[in-house]
Structure formats: structure tokens, C-alpha cells
Specification:
The protein has 192 residues and is α+β, with helices and mostly antiparallel strands. The protein is globular. Helix 9 crosses helix 10. The strands form three sheets. It has a four-stranded mixed beta sheet with strand order 1-2-9-8, covered by helices on one side. 42% of the residues lie in helices and 15% in strands. The chain contains ten helices and nine strands.
């Protein structure tokens, strides 16, 4: 681990390669698991605000899962997350004609209906940020359903920190990312 500002960053985001491969995994990360996507406090108002604009693009079962508890839920650990459809896929997920899971929020964003791409936890994936007492831990979340993304990342020689560049800048700022790139270069030079 190394420190950048108030974060502790795992070397794995420098070491490991990753590039989403939707044609291989079919968006399984939006479907599998036992919890919704983490939501930051400031995102809950955004979800409430955009819901009327994205509702028509969501599946009826997703709409129902959102409207019963609301646009977000409180987890058993007191965190905020997206609601699930029958304890499975994210309520905001849609499926294309090939059965690939896609984010309904991001679809509305790409269509110009809203200016919110999707929760930052989704943009950052496979990076997960955990709040500690004085720091935030920035780690790689390894999940077997993402093995096609690891293979494609290795083929393209795309480390996680480059794949998630835009999201990392959105979360931590340009100065933070510039420092990360400097550390990545030093780390690479030391390990050649």
C-alpha cells in the first residue's frame, strides 16, 4: 500500500490489468451478488431527482423494486445502496436484445436525458473505496465473474488505474490522479 493525500492505495490497482468485456461477461456484475451498488450520501438526492426522467427506460420489475423502498435502500451495515429486483439484479439494470445487462441510468445519460452517469461506485469498478477512520482505502475487488475483463486487460496491457482513470479523477481529483501516475511510473521502473 502507498499513501496519496488521505487515501491508502493498494499496489494491485497498478499491478493488475482490467478492461470490461461485456460481450463475454454479459454485465454479470450488475446481476450477481447479494447487495446493490454502494451509493454515496450526496448521490441519494440525485437518484431521487433523476428517477422520473429515467423511469420509462427501466424494466417494470425494476420500477417496482425502486418505488416500494425508494431510489436507494439502507443496507444492514447502514450503508446506502441501490435496490435489488427480488434480491438479485440491480433495480436500475436493463437488458439489451443479446441479454447483456446495462445500466439504465447510464443509458439515460448517454441519451442526454440526465447529466449523472451512474453511481461513482459503479464507475470505479473494480476499484472499491472503503472509509477508514482517517483514510480511505482504495482497493481492487477481485471477482471471478470478471475473469474475461482481466484477460482483455492483460491483452491490452491496461492496468486498473488506467481503465478507471476518469472515475478516479471524478472521485479524488486531477492532482490525486497525477500523483498516482507518478507513483505508477516509479513502481514500474522498480519492478522491471
Amino acid at each position: 500500500m502507498f499513501q496519496i493525500q488521505d487515501t491508502l492505495v493498494s499496489e494491485e490497482i497498478l499491478d493488475e490489468d482490467f478492461t470490461c468485456n461485456l460481450s463475454a461477461c454479459k454485465g454479470e456484475c450488475c446481476v450477481a451478488g447479494d447487495a446493490g451498488a454502494p451509493i454515496e450520501n450526496h448521490e441519494k438526492e440525485t437518484l431521487e431527482k433523476i428517477y422520473p426522467k429515467i423511469k420509462s427506460g427501466l424494466r417494470p420489475e425494476g420500477q417496482k423494486a425502486i418505488e416500494e423502498p425508494g431510489t436507494f435502500v439502507v443496507s444492514e451495515f447502514e450503508g446506502l445502496e441501490t435496490p435489488l429486483v427480488n434480491g438479485k439484479e440491480c433495480a436500475y439494470v436493463t437488458f439489451n436484445e443479446k441479454g447483456i445487462a446495462l445500466c439504465g441510468i447510464e443509458k439515460a445519460y448517454r441519451e442526454g436525458k440526465i447529466d449523472f452517469k451512474k453511481p461513482i461506485s459503479c464507475e470505479l469498478y473494480p476499484v472499491r473505496v472503503q472509509k477508514l477512520s482517517k483514510f480511505q482505502a482504495v482497493n481492487y475487488h477481485r471477482w471471478d465473474i470478471c475473469s474475461p475483463a482481466c484477460a482483455l486487460g492483460k491483452e491490452l496491457q491496461a492496468p486498473i488505474y488506467q481503465f478507471t482513470k476518469e472515475a478516479l479523477i471524478k472521485k479524488f481529483g486531477q492532482d490525486w490522479y497525477d500523483e498516482l501516475e507518478k507513483i505508477a511510473q516509479l513502481y514500474k521502473d522498480e519492478n522491471l
